[in-house]
């Protein structure tokens, strides 16, 4: 495929707001996980909660969209000059030529949960919660479109944990087909009762900080995050950006609602497609951001896949131990980490993990490392076999 440049990018998660906070945590192997304090009866688990979400007050023109998910999106969009970068693109291309593709798995369901706890005598939402658009999966995209002042094609992608990775694939198609000149991609997901108790009912939640690929791993730690990127055709001269999206691969193996294919067939197909579109062999990849949730099956399948497909020198890690599994926002946050690895030569380690499972190869590293990262691969493997791999690289 023809590369797309990443003109701006940002992420906000449990380790802080924006790229600098994230890069510092990755360099210091500092986890943002904490004992669960979410809800009236917190589950005995650990979470990646973003500080300050409750304190956000949306400006009056956007007040109709108020909910926890959109507040977190607001925080994320204000970081790293991202809103200003989109404004410059809007001036360059026109508002109708900038697409918006966002991923989320819960959207504003936390607000809907709250509304159901306040039903009146007739069983209706209270007046302040009768905001139909807020209680829909497209709430995040409608909010972001108004905030950014763009009016091109708008999509919400909800494919579980791969949601905000697949946004890059959709954006590439929109731009290649001439439906847009640039696209804002990303996603946001926040903690809520449905998420915490839902994953707990599947017996996937750990009672301690998650330990990806550890021999004694006990499950996932849930988190929340918002991340965004501005992608456009590769420019020349002063408008050229040094970071590019080189390839993507998607596959749906549909093996099971919540368990990956035992041989990782869908995951491997997505990986192969991403490398093929980028025109690269596995040996070219310097860093892999693995999906690495710390669940028994996910780590078993992905660990085996990386071990058989990549040379021992490849530096691979899971960053779930820094901010938790941020659900529909996981893909964009880990894409941002991959971009930081290329931009800064920083390959993160795998925090909280002590002893790697014997079934995994030497590619998985516990400690961070420095060195040139020419190409990075980011894996996002979701429920239902919704798999996506992304390849990022430096401009030629």
Automatic annotation (TrEMBL):
<keyword id="KW-0808">Transferase</keyword>
<dbReference type="GO" id="GO:0005829">
    <property type="term" value="C:cytosol"/>
</dbReference>
<dbReference type="InterPro" id="IPR018201">
    <property type="entry name" value="Ketoacyl_synth_AS"/>
</dbReference>
<protein>
    <submittedName>
        <fullName>Beta-ketoacyl-[acyl-carrier-protein] synthase family protein</fullName>
    </submittedName>
</protein>
<comment type="similarity">
    <text>Belongs to the thiolase-like superfamily. Beta-ketoacyl-ACP synthases family.</text>
</comment>
<dbReference type="GO" id="GO:0004315">
    <property type="term" value="F:3-oxoacyl-[acyl-carrier-protein] synthase activity"/>
</dbReference>
<dbReference type="InterPro" id="IPR014030">
    <property type="entry name" value="Ketoacyl_synth_N"/>
</dbReference>
<dbReference type="InterPro" id="IPR000794">
    <property type="entry name" value="Beta-ketoacyl_synthase"/>
</dbReference>
<dbReference type="InterPro" id="IPR014031">
    <property type="entry name" value="Ketoacyl_synth_C"/>
</dbReference>
<dbReference type="InterPro" id="IPR020841">
    <property type="entry name" value="PKS_Beta-ketoAc_synthase_dom"/>
</dbReference>
<dbReference type="InterPro" id="IPR016039">
    <property type="entry name" value="Thiolase-like"/>
</dbReference>
<dbReference type="Pfam" id="PF02801">
    <property type="entry name" value="Ketoacyl-synt_C"/>
</dbReference>
<dbReference type="Pfam" id="PF00109">
    <property type="entry name" value="ketoacyl-synt"/>
</dbReference>
<feature type="domain" description="Ketosynthase family 3 (KS3)">
    <location>
        <begin position="1"/>
        <end position="394"/>
    </location>
</feature>
<dbReference type="GO" id="GO:0006633">
    <property type="term" value="P:fatty acid biosynthetic process"/>
</dbReference>
């Amino acid at each position: 495929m023809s590369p797309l440049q990443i003109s701006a990018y940002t992420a906000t998660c449990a380790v802080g707001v924006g790229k600098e906070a994230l890069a510092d945590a990755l360099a210091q192997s500092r986890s943002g996980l904490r004992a669960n304090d979410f809800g009236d009866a917190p589950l005995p688990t650990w979470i990646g909660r973003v500080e300050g979400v409750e304190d956000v007050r949306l400006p009056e023109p956007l007040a109709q969209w108020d909910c926890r998910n959109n507040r977190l999106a607001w925080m994320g969009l204000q970081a790293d000059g991202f809103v200003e970068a989109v404004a410059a693109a809007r001036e360059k291309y026109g508002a109708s030529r900038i697409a918006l593709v966002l991923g989320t798995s819960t959207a504003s369901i936390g607000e809907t949960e709250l509304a159901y706890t306040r039903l009146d005598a007739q069983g209706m939402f209270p007046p302040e919660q009768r905001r139909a658009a807020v209680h829909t999966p497209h709430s995040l995209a409608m909010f972001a479109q108004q905030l950014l002042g763009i009016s091109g094609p708008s999509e919400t992608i909800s494919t579980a944990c791969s949601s905000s990775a697949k946004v890059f694939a959709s954006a590439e198609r929109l731009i290649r087909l001439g439906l847009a000149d640039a696209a804002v991609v990303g996603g946001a997901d926040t903690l809520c009762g449905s998420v915490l108790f839902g994953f707990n009912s599947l017996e996937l939640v750990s009672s301690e900080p998650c330990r990806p690929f550890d021999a004694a791993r006990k499950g996932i730690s849930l988190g929340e995050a918002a991340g965004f990127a501005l992608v456009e055709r590769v420019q020349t001269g002063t408008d050229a950006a040094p970071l590019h999206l080189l390839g993507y691969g998607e596959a749906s193996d549909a093996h099971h609602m919540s368990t990956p294919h035992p041989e990782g067939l869908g995951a491997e197909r997505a990986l192969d497609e991403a490398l093929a579109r980028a025109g690269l062999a596995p040996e070219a990849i310097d860093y892999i951001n693995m999906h690495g949730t710390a669940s028994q099956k996910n780590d078993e399948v992905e660990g085996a896949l990386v071990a058989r497909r990549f040379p021992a020198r490849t530096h691979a890690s899971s960053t779930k131990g820094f901010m938790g599994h941020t659900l529909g926002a996981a893909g964009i946050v880990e894409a941002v980490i991959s971009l930081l690895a290329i931009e800064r030569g920083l390959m993160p380690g795998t925090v909280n993990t002590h002893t790697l499972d014997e079934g995994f190869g030497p590619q998985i590293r516990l400690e961070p490392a420095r060195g040139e990262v020419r190409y990075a691969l980011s894996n996002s493997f979701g429920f239902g076999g919704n798999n996506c791999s992304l390849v990022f690289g430096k401009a030629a």
